[in-house]
Q: What sequence folds into this?
């Protein structure tokens, strides 16, 4: 069994993200107050409403600027995240979303990997919407590094 080291950026209040107001007035520091450094634990529990980096190199070069989750008019859960490339070179990331129900079970199949291009020292956005309307209660966004530069 291979060990996979992950970084998890945890939001301070899960319930606040699912309200109609997407954390209005809260600072970014408050929203990701539960920031966890890399852990050497082989199995870390999946924390909900997070951005999860699947490798250290991508986590080293990418910073989460903001993250919001809101309900659309039709009841779908929509997640928006801004990612900042701290590197001096362009990066290409693969990002996908996982949506969970109230019992923390997958509410739908995992989203496809989508490519996000980041220029040096710039911000790019990623947005994902659940397919189910009221079943999706929480989410995890997974980020893989730049394959062309060996950041996977």
A:
């Amino acid at each position: 069994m291979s060990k996979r080291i992950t970084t998890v950026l945890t939001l301070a209040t899960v319930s606040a993200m699912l309200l109609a107001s997407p954390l209005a007035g809260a600072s970014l520091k408050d929203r990701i107050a539960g920031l966890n450094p890399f852990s050497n634990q082989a199995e870390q529990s999946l924390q909900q409403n997070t951005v999860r980096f699947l490798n250290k190199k991508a986590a080293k070069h990418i910073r989460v600027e903001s993250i919001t989750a809101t309900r659309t008019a039709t009841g779908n859960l929509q997640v928006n995240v801004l990612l900042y490339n701290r590197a001096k070179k362009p990066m290409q990331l693969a990002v996908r979303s996982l949506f969970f129900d109230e019992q923390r079970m997958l509410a739908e199949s995992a989203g496809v990997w989508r490519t996000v291009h980041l220029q040096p020292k710039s911000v790019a956005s990623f947005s994902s919407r659940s397919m189910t309307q009221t079943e999706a209660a929480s989410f995890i966004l997974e980020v893989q590094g730049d394959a062309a530069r060996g950041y996977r």
Q: What stands out?
A: The CA atoms of residues 103 and 137 lie 9 Å apart. The helical segments are 14-17, 28-31, 56-61.
